[in-house]
Amino acid sequence: MSQPPGTARPGGRTAQNRAAVVEATLAELAERGYDQTTIESVALRAGVHKTTVYRRWRTKERLVAEALEATAEVQIEVPDTGDLALDLQTLARGVRAVLTSTVGSAAVRTLVSGAQSSPEVAQVLRTFWAGRLTKVIPIVERAVADGRLPPGTDSIELMKYLAAPLFHRVLVTAEPVNDKDADRAAAAVLAAARAGVFVVI
Amino acid sequence: MSQPPGTARPGGRTAQNRAAVVEATLAELAERGYDQTTIESVALRAGVHKTTVYRRWRTKERLVAEALEATAEVQIEVPDTGDLALDLQTLARGVRAVLTSTVGSAAVRTLVSGAQSSPEVAQVLRTFWAGRLTKVIPIVERAVADGRLPPGTDSIELMKYLAAPLFHRVLVTAEPVNDKDADRAAAAVLAAARAGVFVVI
After folding, report:
1. Whole-model pTM?
2. pLDDT tens digit string along B172-189?
3. In A, which residues are within 8 Å of B169 by CB distance?
């Protein structure tokens, strides 16, 4: 998120402050989790006065919500080779890349360290993941249309199964996630999809 | 974990205090997460003086570690019908039951709300999950031995894939987890295993 020296930031001082605060919020969330992130710690990190943050965002919930909405702009590539196995592999590697990025880590740690305590943050996180889950829809629809997957395959459920083993490594077993893991997740979900596990009647 | 009135607790006062403190620790973890759980809040909840807790456990890390080790005594049933699909389904339903129990919630919330900050707690959690992961080994070994799964199938990896979609619902999408979800996870992992996704060369 930081810019190389000499790069002009778009907008005036307000826009610059906003960008610095969003960046600092994501960094705090990724390093300290939701509970330990405060408006004061964000202001200190961003190099702005805390009243500037309070004036604009009012509450930690709104600050975190806006920072995560900015995160949502990080896109996962949607492959379109027509080779279902390869497309799912590319998608899984995209999920891996997001999960292991700073913004992805911030979203993941927020999710699990305090989202329950704020309906506003929980809603933003739902939107964040929903935006990513829809990436798989065109791939699955194409595969169903030309008979490579059974009719009625639920693309959203398939995408959750694609992502779940990678989240599991990050969140539960605390193992590194590499391309080999992404490829296995893609192969597993393809086998399950072909067997009709995601068919909704 | 609480006992009906009039039930004798095993052991003397020390054992009773220990049981009350362990129970209070799990309840605090499940409700407030690791970061917000303190020795003081546990003592208050358990109805013991905080110096009693400090004297015995010294640090929050040790207290949480011991409470989670007690959790590890909650067993998942290991099915043995010889029907692989049914055995995996029973196992998945067992994972679901643990995940949605108070002690399971405590372990899950601890895992994701502060385990990174304490090597001691992280180690206990690894042991906790490892103990559950091994449940699948005899089922998979039997299936490989009689040719229902490919030789070289990695039973631990299979078990992670069995559990991952259920954790994903609890942790990421905040959806309820019911037996239907467990059954789908079992069907997905069976299809992937048959396709050789978990074969380690």
Report:
1. 0.79
2. 877 889 999 999 999 999
3. 160
One-letter amino acid identity for A14? Answer: T
Comparing CB atoms, the residue among B111, B160, B169 nearest residue A165 is: B160
Considering the four listed CATH numbers 3.30.70.1530, 1.10.10.60, 1.10.1660.10, 1.10.357.10, the one that applies to the domain covering A84-194 is: 1.10.357.10
Reference B103, options B8, B180, B17, B30; nearest CA is: B30
pLDDT digits (tens, 9 = 90+) for B113-128: 665 567 777 777 777 7
CATH classification code of B13-69:
1.10.10.60
Banded model confidence at residue B7, pLDDT cuts 50, 70, 90:
very low
Q: How far is A186 from chain B (nearest CA, A)?
A: 10
Of A167, A43, A183, nearest to A105 by C-alpha is A167
Q: Shortest Cα distance from B55 to chain A (angstroms)?
A: 28
**What percent of chain B lies above the pLDDT cut of 90?**
43
Does the CB of B172 have a partner CB in chain A at under 8 Å? yes
Which candidate, B184, B104, B193, B97, places its Cα nearest to that of B150? B193
